[in-house]
Amino acid sequence: MSRHEVWADLARLKDRTPFYDAVIAEQDKKEPRRIRIGDKWLADFASCNYLGFDVDPEIMAAPAELIAEWGTHPSWSRLLGNPKPYLDIEEQLTELLQAPDTLVLPTITHIHMTVIPVLAGKGTVFCEAQAHRTIYDGSSVARGNGATLHRWRSTDLGALAVALRQAPHDKPRLVCMDGINSMSGNEPGLAAIADICRAEGALLYVDDAHGFGVIGERTATETSPYGSSGNSIVRHLGESYEGLVLVGGFSKAYSSLLAFLALPTQMKEYLKFAAAPYLYSGPSPTASLATVLAGFDVNRARGDTIRGALWHKTSRVLDHVRKLGLSTPNTSGFPIIELPTRQGADIEEVAEVLWDRGIYVTLAAYPLVPRDQAGFRIQVTAANTDEEIEELNATITELAPLLRPTDGDGAGV
Ligand SMILES: Cc1ncc(COP(=O)(O)O)c(C=O)c1O
Predict the structure, then answer these.
(1) pLDDT in tens, 227-257
(2) In the predicted model, is pLDDT for residue 168 greater than 80?
(3) How far is the centre of ligand 1, averaged over its atoms, from the C-alpha of 62 (Å)?
(4) Residue 109 CA, ligand 1 centroid: distance in Å
(5) What number does the ligand 1 atom closest to the CA of 132 have?
């Protein structure tokens, strides 16, 4: 299909549904997940602010004080001037993750585009087929710099082991994958993949953009199966950081513009010079550093209570979806719930019902996804009210005839 045809399809999609490029005019002061688009108020289930930190009064109050101290933006690149809040963040983050060390940079996209090529060198990048687009883009840059790019599937680990064995051992072998999957909300079989990488002497690179802040180590006192502390997939699955680099971000659960690598100190010191952002990129604004630091405080004091409530809200939606016999790839209970449409159903009709009933979601429509993968994705956050969850469930009931059943048209999960 030509670029012009794709543009035409995109333009038609934008014309026919109000879900793309929508201007959010305001959010309600008392119920912040009520958003206004034009003159329509909708309940927002499209943000990734899972913990509701974006509207937590304690976190909202934090930037003013730090800005009074540091100004709005520490506009040195980190190598040239490293304001202390950065070091405070890395110290607290290392402790939270129980990682050997951490390096924070502005975004995960920055990290993938610059760190993957450095770690891959002229060796081989093994990119998981479902990995996030930004991992694939970083791997493509690595290929442009002389690395070989190999795609693998998490459903065929035998093939990964063979490919790792066959790749030249005198050059880096870097295996890249997602932690919590951004579409299904499910966790990968990390232990088996890490075992293969360690046995083959390859480095494993895991992007847990969505998991960080939500899932964490399992404890006797945990408030939900998400676990405690929100310290990400490695701790959640009881894995170790040996031979593993964890990448995560604050732009979802922590509602702040910042991202990190959990890595050995020696690699951190090397990446400060070898990967571009530490020297060449502007840093995150002071407000983001402040909300990350306040987020750590709130996480310590109330994080597990918030995660317990988030689990409960998400379960209400998932239980309802299951009761209706609808298909969703979500088997984990994570607050990402994708609902595919029934074969032959019209996604524009689905979009119209959602809009009419005031439910704002991420619409997955052609040409953004292949026609047979159309549907919509719900993201539940701790800031969604019980009333909003009820409205969502009522709308799902109404849409059920257009949504894919767990059995029926053969495509259920
Ligand atoms: C899995 C995953 N990785 C990376 C990103 C990009 O993160 P950032 O906004 O920090 O660049 C996203 C954002 O949607 C994501 O879902």
Answers:
(1) 999 999 999 999 999 999 999 999 999 999 9
(2) yes
(3) 24
(4) 6
(5) 1
Put simply, whether the predicted model's pTM sits higher than 0.70 gets the answer: yes
Q: What are the start and end residues of each CATH 3.90.1150.10 domain in the chain?
A: 3-50+335-402
The atom number, within ligand 1, closest to the CA of 106 reads 10
Q: Which atom of ligand 1 sits closest to the CA of residue 131?
A: 1
pLDDT at residue 37 tops 60: yes
Give the residue range(s) of CATH 3.40.640.10 domains in the chain.
58-299
Query: What is 58-299's CATH number, 3.40.640.10, 3.30.70.920, 3.40.50.1000, 3.30.379.10?
Result: 3.40.640.10
Residues 6+ apart with CB under 8 A from 165: 200
CATH superfamily of the 3-50+335-402 domain: Aspartate Aminotransferase, domain 1 (3.90.1150.10)
CA–CA distance, 56 with 15 (Å, rounded to integer): 35
The rounded distance, in Å, linking the Cα atoms of 378 and 383 is: 14
What is the best residue among 108, 115, 116 to mutate for testing ligand 1's pocket, by most ligand atoms within 8 Å of CB?
Answer: 108
Pocket of ligand 1 (CB under 6 A): 107-109, 132, 134, 178, 182, 207, 209-210, 249, 251, 259
What does each C-alpha distance from 384 to 60, 177, 317 come to in angstroms?
17, 30, 12
Our mutation pick for probing the ligand 1 site, out of 111, 250, 251, 257, counting the most ligand atoms within 8 A of Cβ, is 251
Q: How far apart are CA 160 and CA 164, in angstroms?
A: 6
Give whole-number Cα distances, 170 to 95, 111, 294, in Å: 34, 25, 45
Cα(210) to centroid(ligand 1), Å: 8
Q: What's the 359 CA to ligand 1 centre distance in angstroms?
A: 24
Residues in the chain, overall count: 413
The number of helices, as runs of H, and strands, as runs of E, in the chain is 14, 14
Residues 237/190, Cβ–Cβ less than 8 Å: yes
Per-residue pLDDT at 13 = 80
Q: What percentage of residues in the chain have a pLDDT greater than 90? A: 88
Which of 114, 116, 134 maximizes ligand 1 atoms within 8 Å of its Cβ, making it the mutation to test the pocket?
134
The single-letter code of the amino acid at 268 is K
Q: How far is the CA of 394 from the centre of ligand 1 (A)?
A: 31
Whether the ω angle into residue 367 lies within 30 degrees of 0, i.e. cis, is yes
